[in-house]
Amino acid sequence: MILVLKENYDKEQLENLKNWLQSQNIDIHMSEGSHTTIMGLVGDTSSLDIDMLSTLDIVERAQRIQEPYKNANRKFHPDDTVVTVGDVKIGGGNFAVIAGPCSVESEEQLCLIAESVKKSGASMLRGGAFKPRTSPYAFQGLRSKGIELLLAAKKRTGLPIVTEIMDISHIPLFEDVDVIQVGARNMQNFELLKELGHLNKPILLKRGLSATLSELLMSAEYIMAGGNGNVILCERGIRTFETATRNTLDLSAIPMLRSMTHLPIVVDPSHATGISKLVKPMAVAAAAAGADGLMIEVHNDPKKALCDGAQSLTCEQFDDMKKAVDAVLPYACR
To answer: pTM of the prediction?
Structure first.
């Protein structure tokens, strides 16, 4: 349930209302927008008399919310959330590009790519230290050493770093990581999501291989329910019957999510298509559709990449893509 408060509401009456609601075991989440203040009521609200609440002097409107996700719901939080990572902002009209190799392979490789993508306008550096692979025989990443190399690249370039977590036991290793990525395979690893909810750190949550948008938002809710509201959603393609591309990029998810949630939305056209020549047109399309950012795989020599070389752009191709995206941003749908 939400209560939309009247302008210039009485603060003492608000405190009295809060105290009464808390006595009914209702959690309260306040959201103050530029023109509207909303009280989000979380818990068993079935016993609350909505007609009585509507008649209170400080209440403009009372409304029951049917969706099971409350914290992530735009009805609770009408203004866009802006997630801040160092000097980088994502959401609320701020566009960010995250770029880097699928896998961290060496310090030389990572720093070369980091310096190049920064020069082209990337906002953050991505790189896989722990790699979830379909085959147990494929390269699994450099693990903790990979995080050390990401931190070295950050020190050298100043770019905030983004890397994927695989397990609750790895959380201590991510203390200095700027954004923790939850991959598609872990989108419904609820125990991991609950632990990440206790951190004061941005979480980039990827949509599962066959997850609905509501399921994605429910996973975000697990993180937010723990107190961490710094969640970035990532559309990375879903599994369909189509085999021409690695996945099917669901660009309609951008405007749909925009209506459903206040959280920022980034798009990963690299994993969505699996084909490097498709990354630029899909990145431009995602920007035009209103995404808040992109996640792009870049490698200095894709043919020799230890992971996902077929979908990685060269540094030169990334520069070309970034210019095309910048050209369309003023005309993006929002």
So the answer is: 0.88
